[in-house]
Amino acid sequence: MHADERSARAAADVARINAFFPIMPVLGNRWAASRPFEGRTIVLSAHLTTLTATLLRELSLGGGTWIVVGASEATTDQGVVNLLRDYGMDVYAPGGREDHLARALDHEPDLLADVGGLLIANAIERRPDLAKKIKAAVEVTRSGVTRLQGMKLPFGVININDSQLKYGVENRHGVGEGLWHSVQTLTGMHLSGRRVGVIGYGPVGRGVAAYARAAGAAVEVVETNPIRRLYAHYDGYPVPRPEDMLKRVGIVVTASGRIGVLKVSDLAGAREGIVLVNVGHGNDEIDVQGILSASSGVDHVAEKVVRYKLEGGPTVVLLAGGHPLNIVMNSGSPEPVLLHFALLGLTLEWLTGNPVAPGMIDVLPAIEEEAANLALQALGMGHG
Ligand SMILES: NC(=O)c1ccc[n+]([C@@H]2O[C@H](COP(=O)([O-])OP(=O)(O)OC[C@H]3O[C@@H](n4cnc5c(N)ncnc54)[C@H](O)[C@@H]3O)[C@@H](O)[C@H]2O)c1
Questions:
Q1: In the chain, where does DSSP find H-type helix?
Q2: 66 CA to middle of ligand 1, Å?
Q3: Which of 226, 251, 307, 353 shows its CA 20 to 30 Å from the CA of 384?
Q4: Do residues 236 and 312 share a domain?
């Protein structure tokens, strides 16, 4: 497809998404009038999907210089890259490679917005000279928050991941819905009567389990935290040991936000033909390298669907190379994602006028309420 065509397709997607849940255009109109980002330079690292384009389109109406870095090659839509360049932004993509982050930071930003914590970590560790100039940052994911919690933060980082709205709406509903839509698109599988295993029962795992059960699957949950394992039990799921779960299930989803929770050694006794799916932020929850090294045969079944014969073990089918499937497939359920994007935009707007102390900071309750009210209006329920 020609670059202009890709850009036009991405623009059409943005218009379609905004037509049914117009939360971002409302904010864009407001920012176009008040121009809160005028004179600021903001570096934003993100998965470059059409949803991200809807956010950036409106943010750019508020003035300022916007520099964008693709968080991962696997989640970069080239049509979106072209579209963002049409909006006048500098875009470093595909990929979240270190040189792209370094070049983005060379723009000497006032504010950072990150997904996964790598941009913020690079700014702190590799560009300590920038720490005084950077007023604040925003982090959106669990993985990023975990990464940054181990670091001394020289500026304030607003934690969007643990906001009530991201936790309760996007992580809990959006990811599960989008993930199963992606699995169906890639494999054609219907979930009714299938056995599904979920590793990790945080808000993401909980939503993945709930949407699989709603579609008719028999779901089992593996969780190391005893409190969350108990939640899973009372939500009605068996909570077996991982090795027992892997013997039974036909599809397993990693949703732990931790590296290597599904190792090749765990798969030795797994059910023949088991389908491996990751929904966690990175591509390291499933030990893909271990699977490649241990496999005696590889069969490219379809795009993003690869079957490996493990030596002395079962055949396994890996979707999207272990990258977060709903994001790779660009089927993050739009409304919940746009809701947390509204929160992100409102927080950046607030940071332009309000200094914050160094360290990790919760999103302001007033900003959460404002985002929730905007969402209710977008749904035609803006009373009260
Ligand atoms: N794909 C997406 O669109 C999307 C959206 C939001 C978040 N995420 C990502 O999903 C992941 C999970 O997010 P969350 O908010 O639910 O995180 P969370 O930390 O609240 O929950 C993860 C759970 O996994 C459990 N866990 C850790 N190691 C385990 C192991 N070895 N076996 C079993 N359980 C284990 C933890 O005890 C925890 O309860 C993160 O990587 C997050 O960044 C992805």
A1: 3-20, 23-34, 50-61, 78-86, 98-105, 118-126, 142-149, 164-165, 175-187, 203-214, 226-234, 242-248, 288-294, 325-328, 334-351, 365-378
A2: 30
A3: 353
A4: yes
- For residue 161, the ligand 1 atom closest to its alpha carbon is 15
Tell me, in angstroms, the distance from the centre of ligand 1 to residue 202's CA.
Answer: 5
* Cα gap 196→348, rounded to integer Å: 39
Same domain? 65 vs 211: no
Within 10 angstroms of residue 204's Cβ, the number of other Cβ atoms is 28
Q: What is the CATH number of the domain that holds 270?
A: 3.40.50.720
Distance set, CA 378 to CA 50, 134, 173, 269, 324 (Å)? 19, 33, 18, 49, 28
Residue 168 lies in a domain: no
Which atom of ligand 1 is nearest the CA belonging to 282?
41
Number of domains in the chain: 2
Probe ligand 1: pick from 75, 164, 171, max atoms within 8 Å of CB?
171
Looking at the fold, whether 182 and 317 belong to one and the same domain comes out as yes
In this structure, what token pair is assigned to residue 121?
């970590």
Task: Name residue 105's amino acid.
Answer: L
Could you tell me if 312 and 339 lie in one domain? Answer: no
Residue 102 lies in a domain: yes
**Do 21 and 103 sit in the same domain of this protein?**
yes
Distance 304 CA to ligand 1 centre (A): 23
**CATH code assigned at 55:** 3.40.50.1480
Same domain? 149 vs 238:
no
Query: In this structure, are 106 and 216 located in the same domain?
Result: no
Q: How confident is the model at residue 281 (pLDDT cuts 50, 70, 90)?
A: confident
Residue 384: inside a domain, yes or no?
Answer: no
257 and 355: one domain? no
Using the atom order of ligand 1, give the atom closest to the CA of residue 199: 33
Q: List the domain range (segments joined by +) for residue 287.
A: 173-322
Give this prediction's pTM: 0.82
Atom of ligand 1 nearest to the CA of 167: 15
Does residue 199 have a pLDDT over 70? yes
The reported pLDDT for the residue numbered 13 is 86
pLDDT interval class at 1 (50, 70, 90): low
Residues contacting ligand 1 via CB (< 6 Å): 141-143, 171, 175, 199-205, 222-225, 228, 255-258, 261, 279-281, 324, 326-327, 332
